[in-house]
Amino acid sequence: MNLDEITRALLASYETDGGINHLEGTNLPSQESLNRLCVELMYLLFPGFFEDSALTKQSLAAVTSRRIQLIRDQLVTEIEKSLRFERVSNPTAQAEAHAMGLLKALPDLRQRVKTDVSAAYEGDPAARSIEEIILSYPCVLVISLQRIAHVLYNMGVALLPRMITEFAHERTGADIHPGAQIGTHFFIDHCTGVVIGETARIGNHVKIYQGVTLGAKSFVTDERGFPVKGVQRHPKLEDHVIVYPGATILGGDTVIGQHSIVGSNVWLMQSMPPHSIAYYQGDQASIIRPRKSREAILEDVGDWVI
């Protein structure tokens, strides 16, 4: 086939396979614009860390003011596209309100993100400084942008929240749905391969490692066999839970009690009481038992403790 023939064949496919076309419809949000917006929002959350030149206290107010105006304009444009896609009435006014709502939330979001950075520093013995964590730890990007996307998700904005978290997913290898509810002091060590579903609920001071999945066990379907949207289908991790690499925790009725540990490569579809541990032993399935106290652990190892 020559180029003209390929063009005609492709145009014919647009007519016959229309399900993946978006022609003569509303203008959709721009992924390129959203990517730039994500970068600008990270600048606002962490002033002075990502600029090409040093940011001084004297210039901070002016730079921040310009950046907020730029972000506000970009947000209104992209949110309005999403609202028009949803055929919302008066999309311009609503887009302006949603953009201002997100900007107003930024000071509180910074407080939450600061706890995540502290959790990374306190939870990783390899970390040498807060600066190292902010500049190089992928969990900072993915958790920060998820928290921003979660605000838009709660406003009911279509498309944009998922596009924001997909920017972080592409950069870090961690896929956190914007609907997931995440408490303070959240740390994802190494980050890669983590998947956290829409209805997952994560408490405070939770630490998970690479390759962890908080997923759905099964889907409730409607009369046509399609999954019902919005039902609780992902697990809950209570405060001070640790989940080690490769663990898979499934189900909307699965609750991991506070101060519990889920061991590496454990496949879990049942709840765990507080202060318990789940692990594999040989070829046996997951074993759940109470966690030992520090005193009991020291007694077990005895003379090996130096």
Brief digest:
With 306 residues, the chain is α/β, with parallel strands linked by helices.
Characterization of the model:
The chain is of the alpha/beta class and 306 residues long. It folds into two domains: 26-173, serine acetyltransferase, domain 1 (Orthogonal Bundle); 193-306, UDP N-Acetylglucosamine Acyltransferase, domain 1 (3 Solenoid), CATH 2.160.10. 45% of the residues lie in helices and 12% in strands. The protein contains eight helices and 15 strands. The protein has helices at residues 3-16, 31-45, 57-85, 91-123, 130-136, 138-155, 160-172, 294-301, and strands spanning 175-176, 181-182, 187-189, 195-196, 201-202, 207-209, 213-215, 236-237, 242-243, 248-250, 255-256, 261-262, 267-268, 276-279, 287-290. Strands 3-6-9-12-14-15 form a six-stranded mixed β-sheet. It has a five-stranded parallel β-sheet with strand order 1-4-7-10-13. Strands 2-5-8-11 form a four-stranded parallel β-sheet, with no helix packed on it. A hairpin with a 7-residue loop joins strand 14 and strand 15 (287-290). Helix 4 runs antiparallel to helix 6. The longest helix has 33 residues, at 91-123. The N and C termini lie far apart (76 Å).
